[in-house]
Amino acid sequence: MKKERSRWEIILDILKVTKQEGKIKKTRIMHRANLDWRNFKRYFDFLIADGFITNCNPDLDSYELTENGKNLLQRLKEVTELVDAEPRIPNQFKVPARIYPAISHEVAVELSL
Predict the structure, then answer these.
(1) What is the pLDDT of residues 24-52, one digit of tens each?
(2) Rounded distance between C-alpha atoms, residue 5 and residue 65, angstroms
(3) 18 located within any domain
(4) What are phi and psi of 68, to 5 degrees?
(5) Is the pTM of this model over 0.90?
(6) How many structural domains is the chain composed of?
(7) Quick one: which of 2, 12, 59, 111 has the most CB atoms within 10 Å?
(8) Domain assignment present for 96
(9) CATH code of the domain in which 11 resides
């Protein structure tokens, strides 16, 4: 079962599609981002209102990313990489002898995570 996308994942998908296609129509963005019209309209209107996407040719009704949109896309990618990264927990920790009085020296204890 696939989990629902978060708001930021949906915005990231819309921005990615718009960047990949260059100048693109709304319907194509909606289909490539796998959104229904109601959800697409909500997120797309937000991106237009805040200046992340602009109507580059009103006659053809095509859209492209603004510089702010490109910056947002880059930052969302960075956050996604941080969140999806493997935890950097070392496999071994040094345990001081004072924690285990019966042991007179420091030992490495393997952790099973």
Answers:
(1) 999 999 999 999 999 999 999 999 999 99
(2) 22
(3) yes
(4) -60, -40
(5) no
(6) 1
(7) 12
(8) no
(9) 1.10.10.10
Is residue 63 within 8 A of residue 47, CB to CB? The reply is: no
**2 assigned to some structural domain:** no
Count Cα atoms within 13 angstroms, Cβ side, for 104: 0
Q: Where are the alpha helices (DSSP H) in the chain?
A: 7-21, 26-32, 37-49, 67-84
Phi/psi-derived region of residue 96, left when phi > 0, alpha when psi is between -120 and 50, beta in every other case: beta
User: Mind listing the pLDDT tens digit for each residue in 81-101?
Assistant: 888 766 665 555 555 555 555
Range of the domain at 67: 7-84
- For the chain, what is the mean pLDDT? 81
59-to-2, 56, 63, 85 alpha-carbon distances in Å: 39, 9, 11, 43
